[in-house]
Amino acid sequence: MAEIFLKNAWYCAGWDHMVHQGRKSIVARKIAGVRVVLYRKPDGGMVALEDRCPHRQAALSLGRKEGDSLRCMYHGMKFRSDGVCEEIPGQDTIPEKACVRAFPVVEKDNWIWVWMGDPAKADPNLICFSVGPGEKGWNLKTSQMHVETNYRWEIENLADLSHLTWVHEKTVGGDPAYGQIRPKYQITPRGLNTIFWVRSVDPTGAVSHLFPPGTKLDICFDIQHTVPCNWIMRFRAFTAGTATEGESNGKLVVDTWTCQTVTPCDEDSVDYYYSWGCSDSTEFPGMSNLLGGTLDEAFTEDKIMLEAQHVRRKEEPNRKLINIGHDAGPGKMLWVLDKLIREEAGGMPTQQGVTA
Amino acid sequence: MAEIFLKNAWYCAGWDHMVHQGRKSIVARKIAGVRVVLYRKPDGGMVALEDRCPHRQAALSLGRKEGDSLRCMYHGMKFRSDGVCEEIPGQDTIPEKACVRAFPVVEKDNWIWVWMGDPAKADPNLICFSVGPGEKGWNLKTSQMHVETNYRWEIENLADLSHLTWVHEKTVGGDPAYGQIRPKYQITPRGLNTIFWVRSVDPTGAVSHLFPPGTKLDICFDIQHTVPCNWIMRFRAFTAGTATEGESNGKLVVDTWTCQTVTPCDEDSVDYYYSWGCSDSTEFPGMSNLLGGTLDEAFTEDKIMLEAQHVRRKEEPNRKLINIGHDAGPGKMLWVLDKLIREEAGGMPTQQGVTA
Amino acid sequence: MAEIFLKNAWYCAGWDHMVHQGRKSIVARKIAGVRVVLYRKPDGGMVALEDRCPHRQAALSLGRKEGDSLRCMYHGMKFRSDGVCEEIPGQDTIPEKACVRAFPVVEKDNWIWVWMGDPAKADPNLICFSVGPGEKGWNLKTSQMHVETNYRWEIENLADLSHLTWVHEKTVGGDPAYGQIRPKYQITPRGLNTIFWVRSVDPTGAVSHLFPPGTKLDICFDIQHTVPCNWIMRFRAFTAGTATEGESNGKLVVDTWTCQTVTPCDEDSVDYYYSWGCSDSTEFPGMSNLLGGTLDEAFTEDKIMLEAQHVRRKEEPNRKLINIGHDAGPGKMLWVLDKLIREEAGGMPTQQGVTA
C-alpha cells in the first residue's frame, strides 16, 4: 500500500493543558499510525517518545515519571527523555539497542507539535502559523473531538466551504451564497491559501438572533491550510457595504480567528483540536463562548457526515467518483500533500513545482 | 467468491408505515449488500435510491427531501426520484454520470418491495403473495427484528418446521409431533409450497392456557416459501377430529395468516419483517395480539440460535456437515435459490427444470 | 501459520462449582481455539463435548440435558456423553458420522481439566499438581478473570517475578529487591521449577499495614510452572532472620499456596482461574480473604498491562525486540512449550532433551 501519511511534518498532539506537571499526567496518542507517549519534565519541558517499550512492547504510557525520565512499569526499564535506556533492573549492562524512539516536540500557540519524520529535518519554522488561545487581544475558546474517518476526507471537508450551506445550515452556514462561491486559491510550498468574500448575506444560523431583523453582512474568509491538515482562518463580518470587490466598506462587527488542526491517528480516525473566538475590540458578552460552542455543534454535524462517508468509501474504495467545481480546493490541497508524500518516499519533485 | 444474493428479486424494505411523509422520514437500509435510501414524494409515492452520492460517497440518507427530489446535504447535489442529478450548486453543467442508481419500488400488502436487479425485469407479479395487516376480515399484528446471521440459515430455519418442537418449545412449538412430520413439498419456479397436518396434539406452549385441559387440536400448516426468503403461512387449528387425511372434521377454532419476510442486509445480518393474526370469525379478545407477541418471543428464540450458529459456521465454513431427513425442505428451497442465482450469473437453466 | 497451542495437554475449564447439577447448567467455553460445552450427568460426572452440532453447527450449549445425554435444541438430535448420536427426530437411521467430538475430562483439586489432544494419550498423571480450595488445613479463596491477551504474554508474565516490583507496586510487590533477583531455574519435562528467596524486605503493599512498623521479612517463592500455563506457588514469609542462604531462621508468619492456571481461549484472550490462601496455622481473621482479594487487584493490574501489550504486539508482530536478564525464566518456559508443540507436530525431540 502506498504511504498515506507525510512523515516530515509537525502533527498536533493536543492543547498544552492536556499534558501537565501532575504525577500521573502521561498521555497516550496515536499519530499517523505511530503510538506516542507525552509527558512533561520537572522543568516543564515536553517529551514525546514512542509508546512501546523496546523489550516486549509494553505501553510506556502506563509508566512512571522519574525526574526527566520515564520508567516502564512492566519490568522497570528506565528511559531518558531522549529515549536512551539508563537502567535495566537486575543487570549492569544495557544493550545499545535498548532505546525508545524520541520525537522532536515543540509547544507553540498552546498547541503541542510532534515531528514524525527524520529528526534532523525538524525545522520549527515549518510549524503552522496560528493564533493561540493565550494570544493577547483575542478570546479564543478551545475544544477537541475524535472522529472515525480518514484524514483525507477531513482535508476535502476543510478545503471547500461550500458545504457550510448544507452540512452547517443551522450552525455556521445556511446561506446558499456559500454554495455559489468560486474562491481564488494560492498554492504554497506546504498548503493552500484561500481568501473570499460573501457579500450582503444573512447572519449564519447560530448567531442570526444576535442581529436586528434584516441585517445583512459582508463576510470575509481568509484561510491558510497547511499539511498535514492545519486550517487557520481569520473570519470577519461587516455590516453590508457597497463595495463589490476587496475590503468591505461596512462596519467591522465580528473579527475572529479560528485555528483548527486535524491529526490522523491512523487510517480510520482523527483527533481534531480547534478554537474560535473574537478580538477584544469586537467582543461582547458571551460572543466568544458562543463561537466556541458553535464549533462543537458544527463539527458534530461534520462528524456524522464524515463517519457515514468513511464507511461508504471503505466499502467501495475503487468506485469511480464524479467531480464537481467545488472540488478545486480539495483537489489542490490533496495534490500538495500527495506531492510531498511522493517526494519524501524518494520520488522526484514534479516539474510543475509548487504553483501548479 | 460466488454470488450469494439473487439480484432479480423483490426484497422487502420494511412495513409501509416505516417510511412516511414526515419531513425527516428518510430511511437507510442495506439490502443484499447494497445501501438503499427510501423516502416518499409529496404525492406519497415511494422512492428508492442508492444511499451513496456519486460525488464523494456521502450518505444520501443524511439528505433533505425537496419536492420529489432528494438533496445530498454534504455539497448540495440534488437528485430526482429517478436518480438523475438536477442541480450542482456553484456550476451550470451537470456531468451525465452524476446520477444515483434508482431501484424499482412497489408497495403491496403494507410491505415496501425493492427490486435489486435489472430494472427492465422488475415484474410486480413476482412480488410474493401475502396478506397485509390492512386486509379486511383479518387482524394481523406487525413487528420486526434485526438478526446477525446469514439469510441462508434463516431459509433453513423456515423451510423446516421440525425445529418448532425444540427451539420453540415454550412458544409456538413444543409438541414432539412436529419433530416427526415428513411434509410433502411442491417445488415452484421461485420457491416451495408445503402443506401438512399434525393431528390430535396439545395446544402449543404460548396458547395452551386458553384451552380447557385435555383439549386436542388438529393443526394445518399451509406454507408458500419464495425467494429470496418470503414465508407466508395459513395456520389453522381445529378441535381434534377423526379424519386422518385431508381436512380435519373438527371445529375450526383458530384461523390465521402469518406473513414473514427475511431481507439479507449483507452476509452477516438480516432484517426480519413479520405479522400474525386471526380472522374476524375466529378472533376473541386479545387473541391476535397474543399471536403477534408470541412471534416476537419465538423469533428471539430463533435469533439466539441462529446468531450462535452463524458464529460457528463462519469459524469453520468448510467443515463437513451431516444431513438428516428434515433437511429435505431446506435443501429444496436452497436448491431453487441457488439455481436462480446460477442462471442469473449466466449459467444455463438445469435440465431438471423446476420440479426436481 | 505455525500451531500455537499444545494439543496433548490438560486445560483448565474452570472451578468445579461453575458447572453444577442444575437443569440449565450447561457451560460454553473456548479452549485453545476449540468450542467446548460442559455439563454434569445425574451422577455428577462431568462431560465435555465440542460445542458444535455435526448437523448444521448449532450451539450444543443452547441444548438440554436429558439423563446422561445432551439434546441439541435446534433440530432435536440427542448425543450421549461420549458424543455418539442416539436419536434424530423424524428418522430411524443414524449416520455413523453423526457424532460430536468428546473430550477426556477430569476433576481434580476443584478444577475441571479437559484434554484437547489425542484421547489415547490423556494421562491424568499429566494434570498439574495443585492445592485445591477444598484442601484440609488450607483456606484458599478462588476467583477468575477474562483477559484479552495472548497466553504467551501470560507465560512471560508468570515466569518472571521481577514485574512484581513495578506492575504490582501497591499490591503484591513493591520492593525493588524483586527487581534484582536472579532465580535458579530447573527445567522439567513439561515446565519449569523456580525457587528463590528475598530477604529482609518490607511487607508487600497490600499487607504492609498488618505488620508493626519496621518489620522486615524473609520471603520464599517456590514455583512449579507447567504447560500450557499452570502456575502453582508456595509463598511463605518469615520474620527476617540472619540466614543468607537456604531456609530462613526467622519465624514463619505467612504460609500460603496460590494456584493459578491460564487457559487460552484463542489467540487473543485467556480465561484465568486462580486461588490464594493461608494455612490454618498461619491464618488470622481476614488474612485469606485479603490474599484472595489482593489477587483480584493484582491481576487487574496485569490485565491492563497485558492487554495494552497485546494490542502493540499485534500491531508489530515482527518488530525486533531486545532481551534482558529477566527474560531467562520466560525464555526457558516458552522453550519447553515450543519444544512440546514442535514434537507434537511431528518434529523430532531436540538433542538437548529437557535440561537445556
UniProtKB/TrEMBL annotation, chains A, B, C:
Residues 10-114 form the Rieske domain. Keywords: 2Fe-2S, Iron, Iron-sulfur, Metal-binding, Methyltransferase, Monooxygenase, Oxidoreductase, Transferase. Gene3D superfamilies: Naphthalene 1,2-dioxygenase Alpha Subunit, Chain A, domain 1, Rieske [2Fe-2S] iron-sulphur domain. PROSITE patterns: RIESKE. One of its GO terms (biological process) is methylation. One of its GO terms (molecular function) is metal ion binding. Pfam families: Rieske, VanA_C. The keyword Protein biosynthesis does not apply. This is Vanillate O-demethylase monooxygenase subunit.
